[in-house]
Amino acid sequence: MKKQLQLLFVLLLLLGTQAGFAQTKVVTGTVNDTDGLPLPGVNVIVQNTNRGTQTDFDGNYSIEVSEGEVLVFSYVGYSKETVPVGADDTINIILQEDASQLEEVVVVGYGTQSKRNLTDNVAKLTSEDIDEVPVPSIQSTIAGKAAGVQISPTNGKVEGGVNIRIRGIASIGAGSEPLYVLDGVPLINNNESNNGAPTNPLLTLSSNEIASIDILKDASAAAVYGSRGANGVVIITTKKGANKKASFSMNYSYGMSEPTHTRDWLNAEQYIELFTEAATNSGYLDYAEGRFDRLSAGTDWRNGEIDTDWQDLAFQDGHVQDANLSVSGGNEKTTYFFSGAYNDTKGIVRGNNLERINGRVNVNHNFSDRFKIGMNMAFSRTDIDRIADDNAFTTPLQAIAQAPISPAYLENGEPNPNTLYANFLLEDKYAYYKTIIRRVTGRAFAEYQFTDFLRFNTDFGYDLYYQTEDNFRGKKTPFQSTNGSAYASSVGTESYVSSNYFTFSRVLNDIHDVEVVAGMEYNQSNRRFQDVTGVQFPSDDFQTVSSAAEITGGSGAESSNRFLSYFARLQYSLMDKYLFKASVRRDGSSRFGKDVRYGTFPAISAGWILSEEDFLNDSDVLSFLKLRASYGETGNANIGNYASLGLFGAISYNQKPGIAPVQAPNPELTWESVKQTDIGLEYGFLDSRISGELDYYIKRSDGLIFNEPLPGTSGYTSVTRNIGLLENKGFEFVLNTRNIQTDKLTWNTNFNISKNHNEIKELPDGEDVVSGENILREGEPLSAFYLIEYAGVDPDNGDALYYVDGKGSATTNDPNEASRVIAGKPYADWIAGLTNTVYYSGLDFTFTFVGEWGASIYNGGGVYQSANADWFDNQTVDQLRRWQEPGDITDIPQARLAGGNGTATSTRYLQNSDFIRLRNLTLGYSLPEDFTDQMGIEKFRVYFTGINLLTFTNYDGYDPESTSDAGFGPGVTFYSAPAVKTMSLGVNINF
């Protein structure tokens, strides 16, 4: 009987348990904002329990609950929602913004995080910051928007490289560009140009497809990217669909472009006056007049028959045409985003144009409450009409050196071939250089939710960068000694990346918020290059290498590299006010020596939200205050392939093949290591009407990669080694204000300013490294200018003077007797940005100013173009201010033809490049809703956009931001095109 009762008790217990299980079910849903966009990272908690979960990147969640329990949805910046669980298995939520708490979510490596709980320094830009800015490069749209992030275009060419520096330059011999990650895929960012001037590989991206850009500035944020995060990380997230009906967006704009600045050059009358005087002073008058006869091509130079404005011929009126169309939408199962874009940019320099098409497809699909997949795919084709690099005589801007007395064209309409230097018009008419970049980027991903708190993600990414270059130079082009020549090249780089990681995320006892991410990643890149050159063509009608009578050169190369990585990150929040984060990445790279191929990159950070403490949370003035600190280590693997290996190359001896050593091995070569410490304070006052942050950082780059010279007896010229130490330190200040917030008028301001001090701490054997006008020296800024000091003009005789040992010392008229000194630096101490955004009754007005202070530019062309008529190059008009008689006080020496008076490389041609520039301005008007409703559309907006409309600077060269693209040292300009000023009108329609 006793056993029967025990059996009955067990049976009843099982039935009761099954009945309890029967009442438990899985509830799923999506959390969106009022615009229908998904909200990632929303806390979904069962009220009065420690059970909970978070929404994923697409706003989806899944949780086990029982009927009658209450779900609480909370998200920083939004009002809390509570919903009782009923019979429905799906609960979709729309959260309303709470303006008093609103904070954005930032994208970090392998996940997202609320900026409120962030312990790192991450700057976020949204699509509103980068939309409708008519420039081909997405990097240029960032300028002035993020503290400590400097954006500098190389020059005004449409394809010109863009330099982005995050908290200064962290390397000397390795790459200094940040890592770009597009939807989780590290992008290929190699300059593959073969015409001497770099191209910007990110030209292939269109801003209309971008949802946000998150810039990871400190090492704690970037350390999860390990060996490639030393220069910071730029995470680009593209747009995606949402659970709503299909919506279409169309944008079209057209604008005109011109140089931001042109220079004044001597006209024909001034040219004859100055050079006649210079020839007289040097005793070369007869010679000079003979040159005038030749340069004028038989025209009457004495009476000013020809007065050619070569600068006007070099520049052209440019334009920018932008068009894009996108459609997005979806349902609970599937969301989608499709877009297409077209850009047509005619540059301001003659012969320089760009045309680009883009297409993108982003699709997400939920197979079940636990399993979802997605795909991002994009294609672009960019066609660029190139011109020669700044150091080539045939580049248009070097035409300013031509004499104004020379006709540009002959009477028969042909370009004049008998000018002082090669006439670029011959190159423009009888040659072309075409670069075509085709790019495919894609990512397929899947996510499986094992439990409410554990999920697994697997991603596969692909990036194909394929470029062809074709150059033909006809028989009439300058320096052509054959009947035409042609060059063709192709390069294809493929990058595959596979990422697999687990995410554990759970809230315990309502006070412990824990997230752990752990996984691995494999990345392989393969590159193949080939080129061929041919000469002797039957006529200029045949322009491909296949028509050449003789193949004179060709080459080919293949290379690859691989990264294998393991990473983990822990984020912990106690009571939503004590914050902690730790991460580590273990990277292995085939680029480094076999003994040091693996490196470990740890990081740790912490934060304290003081405003949540009892002694501050009742303050009527202080609404938010957070103190944070971080330390982390990152690496720089940007050195190219096989740098650690001993390499042999093929040679020919007496027409017999052979091999010879070409590179010395270094099995101890490893990545540069960057250690960074950051201390930050984030604040908010008056219900966050005033907010911002203040940061101080120290960033030390150790094991700098150098090519160290070797003695000739070794059989090698140099070996690549880790030697040297570089330090960047500085502070950043950000101030955001909501100046006016009413139903009709809002006015918001963002101001940021940062200071960076750069110093070389150690060099190989402590020895200086001098290259052209720049020097690397311990205790000095990176690539400081190293020049003799110009001391002006001797008022007695018009001689140019130089300080023997720098300012304040004795002077000499012999530059060989003067010693070089540190005279300036190419990188700014201070950078700043100011953005104002105003909305009033359908009107929107936004403008951004940027500024830089503390840098200098050396005009490498000054020794020819501002040389008091030393040779026959045309001169800047300030040379008319030359010394002419004893007692004259001026900074321009006496004009002496071929006299070398003042033409030494010196500080005469070094100038401060401080500037403030109105980077962009947008004024728009949206039709009232009553009107658009009648038209059956959601939005109709017309707008005006201006780029580089105003520049305030004392720099008298072409542009304070433009430097040479021909491989000269940092901060050196050489016939470099100025930045572009663009004014566009556009229309944006949503329906």
Automatic annotation (TrEMBL):
<dbReference type="InterPro" id="IPR037066">
    <property type="entry name" value="Plug_dom_sf"/>
</dbReference>
<dbReference type="InterPro" id="IPR012910">
    <property type="entry name" value="Plug_dom"/>
</dbReference>
<dbReference type="Pfam" id="PF13715">
    <property type="entry name" value="CarbopepD_reg_2"/>
</dbReference>
<feature type="domain" description="TonB-dependent receptor-like beta-barrel">
    <location>
        <begin position="432"/>
        <end position="753"/>
    </location>
</feature>
<dbReference type="InterPro" id="IPR023996">
    <property type="entry name" value="TonB-dep_OMP_SusC/RagA"/>
</dbReference>
<protein>
    <submittedName>
        <fullName>SusC/RagA family TonB-linked outer membrane protein</fullName>
    </submittedName>
</protein>
<dbReference type="InterPro" id="IPR023997">
    <property type="entry name" value="TonB-dep_OMP_SusC/RagA_CS"/>
</dbReference>
<keyword id="KW-0813">Transport</keyword>
<keyword id="KW-0812">Transmembrane</keyword>
<dbReference type="Pfam" id="PF00593">
    <property type="entry name" value="TonB_dep_Rec_b-barrel"/>
</dbReference>
<keyword id="KW-0998">Cell outer membrane</keyword>
<keyword id="KW-0472">Membrane</keyword>
<keyword id="KW-1134">Transmembrane beta strand</keyword>
<feature type="signal peptide">
    <location>
        <begin position="1"/>
        <end position="22"/>
    </location>
</feature>
<dbReference type="InterPro" id="IPR008969">
    <property type="entry name" value="CarboxyPept-like_regulatory"/>
</dbReference>
<dbReference type="InterPro" id="IPR039426">
    <property type="entry name" value="TonB-dep_rcpt-like"/>
</dbReference>
<dbReference type="Pfam" id="PF07715">
    <property type="entry name" value="Plug"/>
</dbReference>
<keyword id="KW-0732">Signal</keyword>
<dbReference type="InterPro" id="IPR000531">
    <property type="entry name" value="Beta-barrel_TonB"/>
</dbReference>
<dbReference type="InterPro" id="IPR036942">
    <property type="entry name" value="Beta-barrel_TonB_sf"/>
</dbReference>
<comment type="similarity">
    <text>Belongs to the TonB-dependent receptor family.</text>
</comment>
<feature type="domain" description="TonB-dependent receptor plug">
    <location>
        <begin position="115"/>
        <end position="233"/>
    </location>
</feature>
<dbReference type="GO" id="GO:0009279">
    <property type="term" value="C:cell outer membrane"/>
</dbReference>
<keyword id="KW-0798">TonB box</keyword>
